[in-house]
Amino acid sequence: MFIERMKSKIHRVRVTEANLNYVGSITIDEDLMDAAGLIEGEKVQIVNNNNGERIETYVIKGERGSGCICLNGAAARKTAVGDIVIIMGYGFMDFEEAKTFQPKVVFPDERTNRLIK
């Protein structure tokens, strides 16, 4: 049996842009993507701590080191610039593997969205 389990999490980043006129998705700084083990095109869930909204979309690679967190298309209606969000990626895995799997969890600087060193 396979189950879906959280594999990646970017915890508490600030939305830097909301672009209603873009096709869709979330643009994420490539440094954050790498640290969390997310890839371009991957489905993610976004939880907005400011208003409780939960949405699913896919990842677009943002400029490395920019701190960019941009909700695009319809997702832009669910957030405002400055909102704090949590971004989670999930994966399917064997039940036994899931019991011991350790997800990648990233805690960037909440003001700049950059990795804390």
List segments where confidence is low: pLDDT < 50 over at least 5 consecutive residues. Answer: none
Along the chain, the helix and strand elements come as: EEEHEEEEHE
Helix content: 10-25%
Let me know the largest β-sheet: 8 strands, mixed
* Coarse morphology: globular
CATH top level? Mainly Beta
Radius of gyration: 14 Å
End-to-end Cα distance, whole Å, is: 39 Å
**CATH topology annotation:** Barwin-like endoglucanases
Question: How many distinct beta strands?
Answer: 8
Indicate how many domains the architecture comprises: 1
SS summary, helix count: 2
Strand order in the sheet with the most strands: 2-6-3-5-4-7-1-8
Decide which structural class fits the backbone.
mainly beta
Overall mean confidence score, pLDDT: 96
CATH architecture: Beta Barrel
Strand content: over 45%
Overview of this protein structure:
This protein is mainly beta and 117 residues long. The protein has a single domain (2-101), classed as Beta Barrel (Barwin-like endoglucanases). Helix content is 11%, strand content 46%. The protein has an 8-stranded mixed β-sheet. The longest helix is centred in the first third of the chain and has 7 residues, at 30-36. The chain is globular, with a radius of gyration of 14 Å. The mean pLDDT is 96.
